[in-house]
Amino acid sequence: MNLNDTSEQVLALVPPELHKYLTVHNKNITVNSTEKANPKNVSDIRRAIHRYNEAQTIYNEDIFGPVQNDTIIIAIQVHTRLTYLRHLIVSLAQARDIDKTLLVFSHDYYDEEINSLVRSIDFTKVMQIFYPFSIQTHPNEFPGVDPNDCPRDVRLEQAIKLKCNNAHHPDLHGHYREAKYTQTKHHWWWKANRIFNQLQCTAGHTGMVVFLEEDHYVAEDFIHMLHLLRSTADRSCPHCEMLCLGTYLKTYQYHTNGDKRKQLSLSYIQQVRAANEERRRKMQDTQWNYQVYPYLYSSNQKVEITPWHSSMHNMGMVFNRTVWNNIMELQEQFCAYDDYNWDYSLLHLSQNRPKRDKFKVILCKGPRVFHIGECGIHHKKSNCNASTVISKVQKLLQNAKSYLYPTRVSATISAGGAKHNKKLTKGNGGWGDIRDQELCTNMTKVDRQMRKYIHFA
Predict the structure, then answer these.
(1) Does the annotation list 118 as a binding residue?
(2) What is the C-alpha R_g of the chain?
(3) Domain tally, the chain
(4) Is 263 annotated as a binding residue?
(5) Which of 449, 454, 437 has the alpha carbon at shortest distance from 54?
(6) How far apart are CA 217 and CA 318, in angstroms?
(7) DSSP per-residue codes, 62-104
(8) pLDDT confidence band for 78 (50 / 70 / 90)
(9) What's the chain's average pLDDT?
(10) How many CA atoms lie within 13 A of 163 on its CB side?
(11) 271 has binding-site annotation
(12) pLDDT tens sequence across 396-454
């Protein structure tokens, strides 16, 4: 099946009035790839990005009213996976109280079909922000791929002889930077800085910011559960910095060597800290198993209070400006840590806060945010089929429908498992380049220091 197709089975569970978000246009289709061809008019795209970022337009503000200081902001990081984005938008459209939120779509790839889709949203306020230091806008220079960049696997001695960029600074595994991996961390950091520190509409914002990605899917009561988590945290865990709506449970089967099976979460497989980094990038097939979920959706639903861990609590993560300010106090640690994953960098920061405990999170045991991405930066499956996983999530939520919108939850406290509490000794690498660390650090500073990375002509 073409990834831009939507199966009849999936479509049957989508209200007819929302089919418009799933309509695929034959022209200028955005393929489901993390390695798209460079556009012909890079200069035009740079100017457009600058113009949109300067304007800070909020679509539908005239219908749904201005952003308030307590408005829930839903920040969605978007690359090129249009099929998944369509279904995320469909799921958001069905959420109760979505009209009281602001959706901020943060793009690292400028594409007119994606833009048209986002601007067609008519059920709440919408803003687009564009990451200006992308591979797309810098195809032959840093932060993209400079022709003189060191090859990933070249040895230090050979790199020095080649006099390639950053030859003296490979990562902790001896590898040199790969722009397609560093971009995700850069984008996440820029997006958070943009939302908390730079947008006019959020200058006095004190409410919650929900972090989603283009290949997520939300339950219709996720905002209701967000409020329940917040009120429960106020009563039971006033020091909980994070909320989490998407729980990675042991519901995926990881197949290795035919018969041997390990029960692991998909996100954990994606980001497991293996000594051999290549294992992370050549993952085996996974099979999504949703039947075990419904027992988590009952009249007495449970939430858990536990130390925040990157691979368990990075989906549907929620925090406010107070937490962001705590993160900003340790921004140098985030930017200097040799790990191309933003969430592991945040975990490193959490584990090294002076005179403070690690971040604590309160999370739903019955997830309200799901990962539907079968293809992406860590996935190289040849039979990627968006409809397969989306259909299973739809059925799961249909089966659990009578248990959505609980009036109360019960909280349990957990110290977390051994992997939860094991302190990071070193990162996953991919972030040894001094230029990446400097760009990351400069994102928190005034625009004047960033202009060397932006070209408008």
Answers:
(1) no
(2) 21
(3) 1
(4) no
(5) 454
(6) 15
(7) HHH-PPPTTPPEEEEEE-S-HHHHHHHHHHHHTSTTGGGSEEE
(8) very high
(9) 83
(10) 0
(11) no
(12) 888 888 889 998 888 888 887 666 667 777 899 999 999 999 999 999 875 544 545 55
Any known ligand binding at 101? no
- Is residue 183 annotated as involved in ligand binding? yes
Check the annotation: does 80 bind a ligand: yes
Question: Which are the contacts of 246, defined by CB distance < 8 A and separation ≥ 6?
Answer: 216, 315, 316, 364, 367, 368, 369, 370, 371
Is residue 187 part of an annotated ligand binding site? yes
Query: Is 18 part of a structural domain of the chain?
Result: no
Quote the domain boundaries for residue 383.
43-258+292-443
Indicate whether 77 belongs to any domain: yes
CA 387 centroid distance within chain: 20
Please give the distance of CA 101 from its chain centroid, rounded to a whole number: 18
285, part of any domain: no
Q: Cα 139 to chain center, whole Å? A: 23
Structure tokens at 50: 């600058």
Q: What CA–CA distance (Å, rounded) separates 372 from 366?
A: 16
Task: For residue 337, tell me if it sits in a domain.
Answer: yes
Q: How far is CA 443 from CA 51, 66, 117, 242, 338, in A?
A: 19, 27, 28, 23, 17
Give the type of residue at 416.
G
Q: Could you tell me the two tokens for 400?
A: 């659990």
Confirm whether pTM is higher than 0.90: no
- The answer to whether 306 is a known ligand-binding residue is no
Q: Is residue 30 part of an annotated ligand binding site? A: no
Is residue 371 annotated as involved in ligand binding?
Answer: yes
| 175 annotated among ligand-binding-site residues | no
Amino acid at 443: M
Q: Assign residue 388 the CATH number of its domain.
A: 3.90.550.10
